[in-house]
Amino acid sequence: MLTSFSNDLSHANVVYGYKNYTELEIGNLNILFSVPHDGSLRPVEIPNRENDLNGNLKNDRNTRKFTKFIRNNLEILFSKKYGVRMIPFVLYNNLHRIKMDPNRDLENCCHNKNHDGFTAYHDYHSMIDLYFQKNFIFSNNFDQGLILDIHGNSHEEQWVELGYLLKKSDLENDILSNSFCTSINSIYSKSFLSLEEIIRGENVSLGSLIENKSTIKVVPSPGCKSPKEGSYYSGGFITERHGSFYDISKRLNTIQIELPLWMRTDKYIELSAKHIATAIFDFYQLHSLNSLKI
Q1: 240 near 128, Cβ under 8 Å?
Q2: What is the rounded radius of gyration, in angstroms, for the C-alpha atoms of the chain?
Q3: Distance (Å, rounded) from C-alpha 102 to C-alpha 104?
C-alpha cells in the first residue's frame, strides 16, 4: 500500500511502499531518477534470487549516493534559472538486488514470485505510473517527462553507457535511421532534429554534453558513436517499460545511465555527479522538456 504526501516542499515528501521496501522522494519537476540496484535490505521473508538473466546479483555500489548528489546539483541549477525551488523525483529500491530486481520482468524479478518481493516490485513500477506519470505529468499537462535510470558497472572500458534501447548493430550505422525506435521517441517526435543528432549530435545529445569540458568517455556520443566490441548495456526493463519505445502518447522518455566504477568512488563522486547534473540540465533546456501540452 502506498502512503500519501503533502504539497509542502519545505521538507522532503516521501512515499513508501509495502514494508518501506520502495521509496519515492516527491518532486515538482518533470524529471525522475530511478535507482533500482543500491538497496541494503535483505529480509528473510524474501528468498534470495538464485540466478539472473545477466548473471548479476550484486548491487551497483554508490548509485544511491551519486543520484542524491545529482539531485542536489539540479535543484541549484533550476533554482538559479527559474528563481523557484525545483526538485526532481527520485525512486529507490531499498531491497538488495539479490532479493528483488525491478529492472527485470515479472518472471525474473524475485524468487518464485514471493509475495513480499512481488509486492515491492509492483510498488516500484506503480510509483512511476501513478505519482510521476498520472498525478504529475498528466495532471500538470506537461508535454513530456524524463526518466533517468541510474546504474553502475565495472566494465574495463570505464566509459559512461547511455541506453536508448538501440542495439550495438544499430549504433554501427554511420547515421542513425529516423525509423529506429528508441526509449526517447517522444522527444524525437516533437523535435526538428534528426535521431542521429539527438542521440550522437555535437552539443545537443546527452553524450556530447557529458563529454564536453571533461575527459569522460561516453557511448554513444560524437566521440564514440558505437561500443564496437566493447561492453555496453543498451537499456533494461525499466527503460523499455516506462519510456516511449512503444507509445509516444505516454509522454515519457527514458535513458539508462551506466556509470563506471571510478566515477562512484569517494574521490570522484561529487565532481562527477555535478558534471552529469549540468549535462542533464543542458539537455533538458535544449530539448524544451519544460513545455506544456497545447
Answers
A1: no
A2: 18
A3: 5
Residue 169, classed as helix, strand or coil, is helix
Nearest residue to 32 via CA among 69, 110, 87: 87
C-alpha cell at 51: 540466478
Q: Measure the CA–CA gap between 188 and 60, rounded to whole angstroms.
A: 30
C-alpha cell at 206: 546527452
Residue-wise pLDDT for 211-267, tens only, equals 998 999 999 999 999 999 999 999 999 999 999 998 888 899 999 999 999 999 999
Nearest Cα to Cα of residue 166 among 258, 276, 256, 286: 256
Sheet of strand 160-163: strand arrangement: 14-16, 22-25, 89-93, 31-35, 145-153, 252-260, 160-163, 218-219
- 124's grid cell: 516500484
Q: How far is CA 1 from CA 19, 45, 121, in A?
A: 9, 18, 12
Bridge partner residues of 287 (DSSP): none
For 201-238, what is the HEC assignment? Answer: CCCCCHHHHHHCCCCCCEECCCCCCCCCCCCCCCCCHH
- Residue 205 corresponds to which cell in the numbers above? 545529445
Q: How far apart are CA 100 and CA 39, in angstroms?
A: 10
**pTM (two decimals):** 0.94
Q: Which of 125, 184, 130, 146 is nearest to 30 (CA)?
A: 146
Looking at the chain, the whole-number percentage of residues with pLDDT higher than 70 is: 95
- The helix (H) or strand (E) run that includes residue 63 is helix 63-82
Whose CA is closest to 205, among 188, 190, 180, 189? 188
CA 218 to chain centre: 16
Distance CA 84, CA 78 (A): 8
Cross-strand bridge partners of residue 148: 33, 255
